[in-house]
Every structure is written in C-alpha cells, then in structure tokens.
Amino acid sequence: MKRPSALSLVAAVVCAALSIASSACGSKPSAGDCDKMVRHIVDLEAAEAGAGAVAADQKADLEQRKKSVFQSVGTTYCRDEMPVDQVRCALDAKTLADLSDKCDKS
C-alpha cells in the first residue's frame, strides 16, 4: 500500500473543505464542531488512502500524520466562512464522495 504524504492529505482536506463551503448563509458553527469536521475529513481522506490496511506497527505514525495535517489545516476557515448546515453535512458524510455529492448542494 502506498502511504499518502502529509502534503497530499493537506491538499485533500483543504479541497474538501472549500468544496463544501459553497454557501455563505446561516449561522456560524462552533469551534468544537469545526474541530470535529476537520478531523472527520482527515479521517475520511486517510481511510480512502488505505489507512485501514496500515500495519499495527505503523498506526502511531499514521495518527501523527493525521494530527500534523489537522494542525496544518486548522479550523479558521470553517469558523469564519462556513455555515452550520455545511458543517453538519460534512460531519454526517461517510465518504469523500458523500461529502462532495451531498454537502455541495445543501
């Protein structure tokens, strides 16, 4: 399995977050919800990149990479630009395709 680089995870998370932020209406999400959303998107990206098949001895490295991506992306965009309904939709997404297909339209 080819492991995703931290940069590719960052790019995917940023693209996903930007794609679901198509509407600027609605109230602002909480910092906690933004934190959960970004972590959820990082988890979705990691899962689709094969994180489920990571050997037990590589899980700590995977978690460190995910933490690093989260810290790089942050939650400022979510808190400042995204409406609550977009964040809720992202939190409910089961896959990146789900995120794009459902949340772009809400």
Keywords:
106 residues, mainly alpha, 6 helices, flat
List the helices and strands and how they pair.
Elements: H1 6-20, H2 31-48, H3 59-73, H4 76-81, H5 84-92, H6 96-103
Helix pairs in contact: 1-2, 1-3, 2-3, 2-5
Can you characterise this structure?
- The chain has 106 residues and is mainly α.
- The chain has one domain.
- Helix content is 67%, strand content 0%.
- The protein is built from six helices and no strands.
- The chain has helices at 6-20, 31-48, 59-73, 76-81, 84-92, 96-103.
- The protein is flat, with a radius of gyration of 14 Å.
- It starts with 5 loop residues before the first helix and ends with a helix.
- The relative contact order is 0.25.
What helical percentage do the residues reach?
A: 55-70%
| Category by helix and strand content | mainly alpha
Helical stretch tally: 6
How far is it from the N-terminal to the C-terminal residue, by CA?
A: 35 Å
Stretches with pLDDT under 50, minimum 5 residues: 18-25
Order of helices and strands: HHHHHH
Total domain modules:
1
Query: Main beta sheet: strand number and arrangement?
Result: none
Strand content: under 5%
Shape: flat
Average pLDDT metric: 80
Total count of strands: 0
Rg of Cα set: 14 Å
Summarize the structure.
By secondary structure, the chain is an all-alpha fold. The chain contains six helices and no strands. The chain has one domain.
